Amino acid sequence: MKKVLLFSCIAGALWGTLTSPAIAGQPQLYQMRMEVGRALLEVQLANVDEVLPYYTEDIEYHDPIVDIYGIQEMTGFLYQLLGSSPDLVTIVEDETLTGDTYSATWIMSGQFLGIPYEAKGISIFKFEPKSVRVYYQRDYYSEGDIMATIPGLDLAIAGFRTVYRCSVDPTFECPFNGPPSAGASAIESGAPDNPRALLKRDNRLRSPEQLHRAQLAVGRQLVEINAGNWTEVLPYLASDYEYHDPIVDIYGPATMAEFLGRLFAGSSDLYTTVEDETLVDGVYMATWTMSGMFNGAPFSAPGMSIVKFVDGTLQTYYSRDYYTEGDVMLGVPELAEAVAGFRVYYRCAVDPTFECPF
């Protein structure tokens, strides 16, 4: 009931562009956009009609599998998605709003066509100027989290994740190669036990504006690392740093150093380009496109990341990359058929524009 009242209040006060002097103030607009972004992510089947007015007529939506254009397609997509997953629950975790761009991380759980699953994701919304209406949304999550719950496809995703961890994860006991190696001393020496000390002289001597610019630069550097510059980010990793992606969980700067060394040893031409980015209260979020070769297979994949800074410093204690493993698996002939088959299955269930072969 509270959510229904909120939608009614916002709709009455903020339709189209905001022209009322009382509403045009940034604090009110900021708060209402935060509420709308959260409501669009947490929408359930029972209140689809209530959130649809916050999308523009030309809304553009993308996720790892589906591309939607226009409010009619978006309406059909939401009803089909939530009809296939009537008990779907999304819980927002971290969220930022800078200018007209809202970003948030979340956990989604429920059942898809009767199969239970849980997935972590991240989204970006773009609002029209001085408005609470969204004209662009992109959700990032790994379809592997759903594939892992489906008999037959679970073997394909498990095999891919095993091969990937064997290649890059220094903590993984690879069934093909025996226990993990200790790692090269040259890599370990690049990750000091206390990297915070390297920046102690000026970490807290910055104005808020200087700190913001510096954190923005460090966040971008962590996302855009490549084979030629990855060692340069190591001094910015706090002693309790942790990193996560759809497959790997890394704890500590020394382990992160070995992970990056292995990753780029097998992907020397892997490059990431940041597109949209936000930074609020030490939380950096960015969308990006990664392209190159992984173990000989070419690929290009969009993704999004979150980086969290120790308060008032350039030290990062947490980062997570969101992307779909399917984009990489399509470049592996033995796995491409499984991914393509799952995407057809998924689009048949949720995409109103898709001519389902079944």
Description:
- The protein folds into 2 domains: 137 residues, Nuclear Transport Factor 2, Chain: A; 142 residues, Nuclear Transport Factor 2, Chain: A (Roll).
- Helix content is 35%, strand content 30%.
- The protein has 358 residues and is α+β, with helices and mostly antiparallel strands.
- It is built from 12 helices and 12 strands.
Average pLDDT for all residues? 85
Q: Unreliable stretches, pLDDT < 50, 5 or more residues?
A: 1-24, 181-202
Supply the helix-strand structural class.
alpha+beta
**Would you count the extended β strands for me?**
12
Taking strands numbered 1, 2, ... along the chain, how are they ordered across the largest sheet?
2-1-6-5-4-3
Could you please say which CATH topology of the largest domain applies here? Nuclear Transport Factor 2, Chain: A
The termini sit apart by: 40 Å
Give the amount of beta strand, in percent: 25-35%
The CATH class label of the largest domain is: Alpha Beta
Q: How many structural units, i.e. domains?
A: 2
**CATH architecture verdict of the largest domain:** Roll
Order of helices and strands: HHHHEEHEEEEHHHHEEHEEEEHH
Backbone shape: globular
Q: Helicity, in percent?
A: 25-40%
Main sheet properties: 6 strands, mixed
- Rg, alpha carbons: 22 Å
